[in-house]
Amino acid sequence: MIPEIDMSIQNVKLTNQPTKTYALVGDKIVGMIDDVEAIRQAIYLTLSVERYEYLIYSWSYGVELKELIGKDVAFAYPEIKRRVVEALIQDDRILDVDNFTFQKEKEGVLVVFTVHTIYGDLLEEMGVMI
What stretches in the chain show pLDDT beneath 70? Predict the structure, then answer.
């Protein structure tokens, strides 16, 4: 007798994976973090990796900012916004990214934005060379 296996979609249960991960300070692992601190670290790491630059990362990981160097701010600001949102919403813990402000500095631009996560809202900032 051959056993019968029920493969219907009705029996599939989706669960959220825990967010516990290693806490990184510089290039050292200093313990474990979870929830808000884990998502804050994930945001930092995602925005620190240039997409398509490193074979170790999936093509859906990272942000495309390198090609904006030397571009006019009228073009660069909306592109930075679009690319940051596109990079961050790949993470299912992130619901939305908005409230962008741009402050021109000597070497580039300081970008401040709000990340809406399943753990609450986070105010984040990053420097971008343009």
Answer: 1, 5-18
